[in-house]
Specification:
283 residues; alpha+beta; 5-stranded mixed β-sheet; 11 helices; globular
Length: 283
């Protein structure tokens, strides 16, 4: 059964991808999606205090080509949330109060349907509006031209014009294979599988079996077994990879064998699998 795009857990996966890749995709998003002329970008804390703390998807202090300074606030949205205008208004007021700067807000819609959210609030004593844009309106070639793999992957969610989805997907896969290491590819293919769900694509919908084999081969990759090991790989394995649940001895041995084939150090394998060095050496 396909996972629901608007389910909170599934939605958080999309948020996680865009947060992970934000540093590299930001220049392209600002230029091609938001159509802003920005010269400098400064980091801002992305948490905003309401009755409870909420994190924004993107929050930066920027200066444009005319010297104007403002807070750039961006939210990614996978569904047509009926009260988005009120949510953005809440953010706007709190951000203006906190940073004492004008706030320019965008919602980038990445869902499969057309965006139809209200973008303004107009009452007798209050007026508010934010900018709503769709990633699917941007020509995919603009993203593929990027030097960054994270930005290239956005081509899948953009306007494919007369190109078939599989054709563009094949180009993205080729870029991943050409410009990243074997370890990095695992991470990017994992992200790509999740992004494909935003276009209602799974392995059964892709006819090119060679393409399916490349994209979905990581489903059995030990490093990405859902719910068992969490980690991020980029150039090298970074951070802490959480071990296997207690009692999963056979699974731990399988993982150790796969990691040993990849040439990883015995001590490192022992650390993440909780197996002894002797057990790993015997494999």
């Amino acid at each position: 059964m396909p996972e629901e795009i608007n389910h909170p857990v599934q939605g958080s996966k999309y948020d996680k991808i865009f947060r992970e890749n934000m540093h590299n995709t930001l220049p392209g998003i600002i230029k091609h999606v938001l159509h802003l002329n920005v010269n400098t970008v400064e980091e801002l804390a992305d948490d905003v205090q309401f009755t409870k703390e909420r994190k924004t998807d993107l929050l930066k202090k920027v200066r444009d080509n005319k010297g104007n300074r403002y807070v750039l606030h961006v939210e990614y949205q996978t569904d047509n949330y009926p009260e988005m205008a009120f949510r953005m208004a809440e953010y706007s007021i709190m951000l203006q109060r906190k940073h004492k700067l004008p706030v320019k807000q965008f919602v980038i819609y990445i869902g499969p349907a057309k965006a139809n959210m209200a973008t303004s609030i107009t009452t007798k004593d209050f007026r508010f509006r934010y900018n709503l844009t769709e990633l699917s309106a941007v020509n995919y070639k603009l993203f593929l031209k990027s030097d960054l793999v994270e930005e290239k992957m956005l081509a899948i969610l953009s306007n494919l014009a007369s190109e078939s989805t599989e054709s563009v997907l094949a180009q993205v896969v080729q870029e991943i294979e050409t410009h990243t290491s074997t370890l990095e590819q695992g991470r990017y293919f994992r992200q790509l599988r999740i992004l494909l769900q935003l276009r209602n694509l799974n392995k059964k919908a892709i006819k090119d079996m060679a393409l399916v084999g490349k994209i979905f081969k990581e489903e059995k990759d030990i490093l990405y077994r859902r719910g068992e090991i969490k980690g991020e790989i980029k150039g090298e394995i970074k951070g802490e990879i959480k071990g296997i649940e207690k009692g999963r001895y056979e699974e731990a041995m399988e993982i150790a064998l796969e990691l040993k084939k990849e040439g990883l150090a015995t001590e490192f394998i022992a650390k993440i699998t909780k197996l002894s060095i002797e057990e790993i050496q015997a494999l």
